[in-house]
């Protein structure tokens, strides 16, 4: 989970990590980690990441494109296979 946390915090999907508590994305990170057990591809994980952040923050606050989630998912998948 710590590696996923580092990746999500570095990505900073809603742009608040520089002034928000370190655990700002903790709930979303936990959900992503739970889905890691069930996804079979980077694309599936990217879809889940996008869905999680849209559901949690809405598209007014989380305004990233779903394609951007693919890069994040790729990083997460690469460390989760180690």
Q: What are the salient characteristics of this protein?
A:
0% strand, 4 helices, 82 residues, Endonuclease III, domain 1
- How many domains would you count in the coordinates? 1
Spatial extent as radius of gyration = 12 Å
Approximately how much beta-strand content do the residues carry?
under 5%
End-to-end Cα distance = 13 Å
Please identify the structural class as seen in this structure: mainly alpha
Short description:
The chain has 82 residues and is an all-alpha fold. It is 68% helix and 0% strand.
Report on the structure:
The chain is mainly α and about 80 residues long. It has one domain (about 1-80): Endonuclease III, domain 1 (Orthogonal Bundle), CATH 1.10.340. The protein contains four helices and no strands. It has helices spanning about 1-10, 25-35, 40-60, 65-80. Helix 1 (about 1-10) packs antiparallel against helix 4 (about 65-80), helix 2 (about 25-35) runs antiparallel to helix 3 (about 40-60) and helix 3 (about 40-60) packs across helix 4. It is globular.
Q: Layout of SSEs?
A:
Elements (H helix, E strand, L loop, with lengths): L1 H10 L14 H11 L5 H20 L4 H15 L2
């Amino acid at each position: 989970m710590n590696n996923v946390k580092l990746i999500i915090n570095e990505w900073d999907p809603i742009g608040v990590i520089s002034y928000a508590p370190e655990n700002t994305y903790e709930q979303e990170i936990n959900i992503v980690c739970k889905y890691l057990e069930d996804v079979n591809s980077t694309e599936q994980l990217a879809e889940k990441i996008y869905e999680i952040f849209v559901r949690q923050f809405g598209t007014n606050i989380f305004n990233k494109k779903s394609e951007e989630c693919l890069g994040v998912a790729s990083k997460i998948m690469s460390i989760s296979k180690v």
